[in-house]
Specification:
The chain starts with 15 loop residues before the first helix and ends in a 7-residue tail after the last helix. The chain has a two-stranded parallel ribbon. The longest helix has 24 residues, at 16-39. By secondary structure, the chain is mainly alpha-helical. Helix content is 48%, strand content 4%. It has helices spanning 16-39, 66-85, and strands at 43-44, 54-55. The radius of gyration is 16 Å and the shape is globular.
């Protein structure tokens, strides 16, 4: 049985500047996901339907419901924290 064991990043403190980067990464994550779905033949639809390949999430990031944005933000934030936890530095 699969038991996910993500690296604990709860002790990582990020600067405000790096935290602000999270939203841009989240938007890009969504755009990459959407481009992949479109390439696979998915289109916008009011309801997600795997058979018809429709999803209501094929919209610009700004139009996503907050719950969907939070998923992308969490992915971005945890990725940044992992980078820092592993000893890398993020500089502008």
């Amino acid at each position: 049985m699969y038991e996910p064991k993500p690296i604990d990043t709860s002790d990582v403190i990020l600067s405000k500047e790096i935290i602000s980067l999270t939203e841009k990464i989240a938007e890009n994550v969504h755009d990459i996901w959407a481009a992949g779905k479109i390439t696979e033949g998915w289109t916008y639809g009011i309801e997600k339907n795997s058979t018809m390949k429709t999803t209501p999430c094929l919209v610009p990031y700004s139009e996503l419901p907050e719950s969907e944005k939070e998923y992308d933000r969490n992915t971005a934030m945890e990725t940044i924290k992992l980078i820092v936890k592993l000893g890398y530095q993020i500089r502008k």
